[in-house]
Design brief:
The complex is a heterodimer of chains A (99) and B (503). Chain A is built from four helices and three strands. Chain A has 99 residues and is mostly helical. Chain A has a domain of 45 residues: Histone, subunit A (Orthogonal Bundle), CATH 1.10.20. Chain A has a two-stranded antiparallel sheet. In chain A, α1 crosses α2. The longest helix of chain A has 19 residues. Chain B is α+β, with helices and mostly antiparallel strands and 503 residues long. Chain B has three domains: 311 residues, no CATH class; 111 residues, no CATH class; 58 residues, Arc Repressor Mutant, subunit A, CATH 1.10.10. Chain B contains 16 helices and 15 strands. In chain B, the strands form three sheets. A nine-stranded mixed sheet of chain B has the order 3-6-7-10-1-11-12-13-14. In chain B, strands 5-4-15 form a three-stranded antiparallel sheet, with no helix packed on it. The chains are: A mainly alpha (99), B alpha+beta (503). At the A-B interface, β1, α4, β2 and β3 of A face β2, α2, β8 and β9 of B. β3 of chain A pairs antiparallel with β9 of chain B.
Chain lengths: 99, 503
């Protein structure tokens, strides 16, 4: 298991929009490495013929009919918004670009 | 915005091989959103079609819309794809206010449909149709994002805005993203292939009835990937992705523009930055967007809140049986049935009138008559009014009825135009418009006869010429009679009466 580098942690923090100081990066990088190592130890007990599990339930095809159901009114939807204008959620200036 | 330096297209083609990739997003016309029961219709009041699920409120759980899965499978089958026996949704993580969950529910390495193709017809060098096979890599299910309104700064632009206002009505509307494999070896035909692919895909989507397929309203959106490699190189060059190209013509223009821009940069010793680019419809250029994130940066992982989709083979076969005739094959069949020339057919398709002409013929009109009205008078009105031809308010049944009335000599072509005017103005059916406007031709020979005699009397010189056998001179008298009858006479019958009286 390769160690997670300080640069990788900085990159992940950036992607997750978490502002980490240099000291925090120094502190977190080795900790994350330990966590990854612990998780990696699982691979020692599984063999290649055990498929990875993503869902706890052995279900497939849980669907909904294409029928409209009542949702929220705009007023309800905006009730918890920190700010709204023109019946829309108001968000601070967007610096990045659309995804 | 600095204008990019461009290389002449011929020079680009002499030096480089273009590789093209198209990603097309199709917004489905389901009643409800992909993962919740909110209405998926267009144009509602802001934030009036939302619920805890599509707003990403804590604890809300998504459930997949069966109809959207069905549409995805049908699109996949129509594109000759394999349909996954088992696939999952995945979270595509990013922070942007158009998705309040901070991720988009999509599919990653397990698309519902994969490995297909579409045969695209373009005009070959000899002017004959040439078929080019576009390989489809995948078609996957995902959800649309909300709509942002950028306020302040340069109007409507994200850069320099003071704040943004977000409407989540569109967030969660089902999308199918269709991705081609890199299209190589197209050379000079790359721009035409790009356009023809999107056009044919749009027709296919319309034939499947799974989307409104309106590029101008964004229910079909194309992203154009382009790269250049030195001629003969076996490696692809670095690509750019031009987002949201929203007309067929622009797909072609965007490909040409990027070929010329890449060419100039590469020939100048520069390198292409892998990035997304914005298309500017007005100026026909692209400008830099953001640097393209690696897929890794989206930290995709299987969506734990949605169980896998495992379409049974029986279901897939049932859906295969519902596929409409392939539009390209259907067009070839109709052209033969209708006896249209290639040009007739191209014009009909180009005017967006193929379906209308087809229905008009089904309603009893002769093919050439149906074509004449839709591509003549009605196409003219559609252009003048800036309204799609199908949205003029004239139905195929109306056109068939007008043609039948012309053939029955109740009206003539000129009066028919007036009838269409009335229908477009909302005055009712063809028969109602004729009644209200008093457009029926005078079929009473007595009235016609009197008008003919008046015309002869008023134009003795012309009458003498006809008496002397110069029948061609009758035109002047016919004109006079038609004027007298305010156009509401059968010119053929008028001519007969004139000749009867003077010879």
């Amino acid at each position: 298991m390769p160690e997670i580098t300080r640069d990788e942690v900085a990159h992940l923090a950036d992607l997750a929009r978490i502002d980490l100081s240099d000291a925090e990066l120094d502190h977190l990088a080795p900790q994350l490495s330990v966590i990854l190592e612990s998780v990696a130890s699982l691979s020692e007990v599984t063999s290649a013929d055990v498929p990875p599990t993503s869902h706890a339930l052995p279900l497939t095809n849980v669907f909904r009919e294409d029928v409209v159901r009542p949702g929220l009114t705009a007023e309800q939807a905006l009730a918890a918004a920190p700010a709204s204008e023109q019946q829309r959620f108001m968000v601070p200036r967007i610096l990045g670009d659309e995804q | 915005m600095n204008a990019a330096t461009l290389m002449g297209l011929d020079e680009v083609l002499a030096t480089f091989d273009p590789a093209l990739g198209l990603e097309v997003h199709v917004e489905l016309n389901t009643n409800t959103k992909m993962f919740c029961g909110c209405p998926a219709v267009f144009g509602g009041e802001p934030n009036s079609q939302v619920c805890p699920t599509c707003l990403g409120l804590p604890g809300a759980m998504p459930v997949v819309n069966a109809k959207a899965v069905e549409a995805a499978i049908r699109i996949g089958l129509a594109l000759n794809c394999e349909i996954a026996e088992w696939c999952r949704f995945a979270r595509k993580n990013y922070f942007y206010p158009d998705m309040p969950k901070n991720f988009q529910t999509s599919q990653y390495d397990e698309p519902i449909a994969f490995e297909g193709y579409m045969d695209v017809t373009i005009e070959g060098d000899d002017g004959e149709p040439e078929v080019f096979r576009v390989e489809i890599e995948r078609a996957h299910m995902e959800e649309d994002t909300g709509k942002s309104l950028h306020v302040g700064g340069a109007t409507g632009r994200i850069h320099g805005a003071d704040f943004s206002l977000v409407d989540y009505n569109r967030a969660g509307i089902p999308l199918i993203e269709i991705v081609t494999k890199p299209i190589q070896g197209a050379g000079a035909k790359a721009p035409a292939i790009a356009k023809a692919y999107v056009a044919q895909l749009r027709e296919l989507i319309l034939a499947l009835g799974v989307s409104d397929a309106r590029m101008d309203q964004g229910s079909i959106r194309a992203d154009v990937n382009l790269s250049l490699a030195p001629k003969g190189a076996d490696k692809l060059g670095t690509r750019t992705e031009t987002k949201n190209v929203n007309s067929l013509r622009s797909v072609q223009r965007a490909v040409i523009h990027e070929m010329q821009r890449h060419g100039a940069i590469l020939a100048g010793g520069g390198s292409i930055l892998q990035e997304t680019r914005h298309w500017h419809e007005d100026t026909g250029v692209t400008t830099s967007g953001r640097e393209k994130s690696d897929a890794d940066d989206y930290r995709y992982f299987p969506e734990p809140d949605l169980v896998p989709v495992a379409p049974s083979r029986e279901w897939v076969e049932e859906l295969r049986a519902t596929l409409p005739e392939n539009p390209t094959e259907k067009r070839a069949r109709l052209q033969i049935e209708w006896g249209f020339s290639d040009l007739d057919m191209r014009d009909t398709v180009g005017a967006g009138a193929l379906g209308l002409v087809e229905e008009t013929i089904a309603a009893g009109a002769a093919p050439q008559a149906a074509r004449k009205w839709w591509l003549g008078e009605l196409a003219r009105r559609s252009n003048e009014d800036g309204v799609e031809i199908g949205a003029l308010g004239v139905t195929p049944a109306d056109v068939a009825r007008v043609q039948a009335l012309v053939e029955a000599k109740t009206i003539n072509d000129k009066l028919a135009r007036s009838v269409f005017e009335g229908i477009i103005a909302g005055e009712g059916t063809p028969d109602e418009v004729i009644e209200k406007r008093g457009l029926a031709m005078v079929s009473d020979d007595g009235a016609l006869s009197a008008a003919v005699e008046a015309a002869i009397e008023a134009n003795p010189d012309v009458a003498d010429k006809i008496r002397d056998g110069k029948v061609a001179a009758a035109g002047a008298l016919i004109g006079a009679v038609m004027k007298e009858m305010r156009g509401q006479a059968d010119a053929g019958r008028v001519r007969e009466l004139i000749i009867e009286k003077l010879t």
